[in-house]
Predict the 3D structure of the following.
Amino acid sequence: MGSRASTLLREEEIEEIKKETGFSHSQITRLYSRFTSLDKGENGTLSREDFQRIPELAINPLGDRIINAFFPEGEDQVNFRGFMRTLAHFRPIEDNEKNKDPTASEPLNSRTNKLLFAFRLYDLDRDDKISRDELLQVLRMMVGVNISDEQLGSIADRTIQEADQNGDNSISFNEFIKVLEKVDVEQKMSIRFLH
Amino acid sequence: MFSFHAIFFPQWATLRMERGAKEKNHHLYKPYSNGIIAKEPSSLEQEIHELRGSANSLRSEPEFEMADIFYFCRRGVESIVDDEVTKRFSAQELESWNLLTRSNYNFRHISVRLSALWGLGVLIRYGFLLPLRLTLAVTGVGLLLVLTTMVGFLPNGELRTYLSEKVHLICYRICVRALTAIITYHNRENKPKNGGICVANHTTPIDVIILANDGCYSMVGQVHGGLMGIIQRAMVKSSPHIWFERSEVKDRHHVAKRLGDHVADKTKQPILIFPEGTCINNTSVMMFKKGSFEIGCTVYPVAIKYDPRFGDAFWNSSKFGIVNYLLRMMSSWAIVCSVWYLPPMNREEGEDAVQFANRVKAAIAAQGGLVDLLWDGGLKRAKVKDAFKEEQQKLYSKVLTVHPALYCAH
């Protein structure tokens, strides 16, 4: 029998998630349904295997990096709160949010946080720097066997050369933001959630 | 008869619920038909070039932008929230409740009246409908075993064929009553004929009974043990069915030969095959395995669509065994479905088996109002092949190595 989604998710929890992520009540219950349908072990958390079971994600060249983004450092399970927190990065930035109280903590879906999400996809060892090696590894994931080592190497060199401003041969988060300042991050890193 | 009541009760109940919900402005209805997210139907090349357009790009060698990652990232997270495949392997979500606990996903307690209605429903379904249906089912299967064996003693000839058809039809009709299946057949002039293959979308083992109720087919399948095995052996005594040993299934030439031989004999009934190879939840049609389309005979496509409001017919084999499933079917309100016989199709010049299979699949999907997917139903259990990921990587590499000016020259 299907799980009784709304009875397992308490109203207080929904309110907390609403405050933290900005999703609406109905979006949260729909996403909870999705969460439970992915949770084959039915233990309230998702493992990496649960994500890999999604064919469209399994064929995504950066599938493993994206899956990794859901799991906090060193952990193998993600609960619904963590799931929602990660998804919150992809909420569109609504206009009324831009005029909100500037002293409130930055929402998860701000431009900076979206960029941070993308930055962490490149930063394999989570040391807040994208080294040439890390860039090469991610590039290799994206192109497979179709581009030679030399070509890939020169792509990586050129990219770092253009982005690196303090000469440490790696890209920091601020340098990353600078490179992408003309890109419409809000649109490209947003998913249209329906009510 | 009682099938009238089985239909009337839930319909009346649904109307009352709707009225009650509107009165109290409850969120009884969720717009499931809209999906959780809206996806952009754009391609990899399109999106990467859009990303490039907003960044600096004046080079002439292989190009890469750090922003490219956004495309893969967004697509990946979109598929985590809503993908086309995994939802096909579990029962369809309903927009309004049909008074069956098993369909109760997101529906909360609305009123005492509704719960009382549900309780009454349980009494009727389990106390009255289920025992009645079980008796019918046992009768139907028993008769099938006895009568087919008896017909099997007759010598080959017209009489035997005629009697065999009658016996099969009678027994299937009893089984249909046992499930209270209310079937509407459309376009019966297109019914499959001898020497052809009938292909249909697969939702449940009951599909066989639904189709066999209206015509005689030769079944294809693996030899089973137990009760299924006894039924299989009995059926074969009176009419030609094609049962394979487990070991023979892997040998594609052997399978193709047996099917081919059967089809070549015009006195034999049409073969019934479900090319998806597994049960899908009746919202989509998944990849058709090309084996049946290589044989070279006429294909008669059939679309079967179940109405989920009276009882979801989908068999989720990872969740329920067959006995559990049949009991659930027999304690639902009814199984309401439509069957469309589509005009026969033949492989055209220059078309290979895969293209032919896709053409047939598209026709069935269009008729049944189902989503036409290229994904393999086998993904229910197996991992997706690496080749698909390699395709994505290839596509992206192409974008990197093509000079932007050349590309924009279209």
